[in-house]
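Lay summary

Proteins are chains of building blocks that fold into shapes. Our project writes down both the chain and a compact code for its shape. Here are two examples, one after the other.
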Amino acid sequence: MHFVPLAYIFGDPGLQVLATLMVLAVAINLVVHRRTGITPSASTGLGSGIALLAFGVRAAVLAASF
């Protein structure tokens, strides 16, 4: 959730989207863990990792455009 205040500090509303995706990854993790038994760290890590990778690429593209 620390991405929400960082969005205001850095002037990047995309960080609020990232915060939402990270919270969704945790919520989806609860469902996945209960239904499949996959460890919580594996399913949360996968969702969070994909979101962070996507926003890392986004940041690189934005930085390259300056």
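And here is the second example, written the same way.
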Amino acid sequence: MSHDHDALHRGFVEEGFAIPRGSLVDPDTLAAAQAAMLQVRDGTFDTGVPPSGHPGYDPAKLCKINDPHLASHALHALVSDPTVARLAAVVTGARRIQVWATQLLIKPPATAAAGHVGWHQDRQYWRYWQQPEGLFTIWMALSDVEADCGPMRFVRGSHRWGFLDQGDFFAGDHQALRDGIDVPDGETWEEVSALMPVGGVSFHHCLTFHGSDANTSDRPRCSVAVHLRTEAVEPNEGDESYYVSHLADPAHAPVIYDEDDA
């Protein structure tokens, strides 16, 4: 493991997130994904399969399209990018990594509170898995993410607080959410902005508190969030929820890294 890789792994374990430097996605894959993002946004699905959820695009608020990788060959290739997948294995220590859900997130400019993502732990929405360990997200930037774009912000070390079941992705009042989160005694609420160039990525644990503010820039902030499991976690026995019912289908749930094949 290189020095940089060691630092990323240590950051993920100790702080609950890791933000590598620079653009990591293959340039051709990235360019194709950027074009595909607009096609899927506007209702064109070159696989012939729609996303699992598409609310339509409203330039006045955050747009969240569920499972765009089902609708686009280029977005499926993006979430399977082998360089990113290998780094994910290093960062998390995984032997096997499988995608089980994705989200296309477009935060238009000048959306004010309608562009907020409220403070939350992903585990709040992922109760069909047996335990939080082994569940994480890769966030992939399809535009430059600078301080005025409403970048994602992580709360350092909050994955070690356990599952608090507090916060709300869909709520816009950050201070009210923050006031309702019981920070354990001896811990501090320290926010770190995930700034990165187009093609950059971040990794975060499913118990890490995170959220984002409004996009005050003059350009949209665009990304794909990829939700993954390692070999360490299985669905709850007998659970028939949507996202754990398609794990045998490589279109829905591609295995992007397997140590036995590396």
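What can we say about the second shape? The two ends are 15 Å apart (CA to CA).
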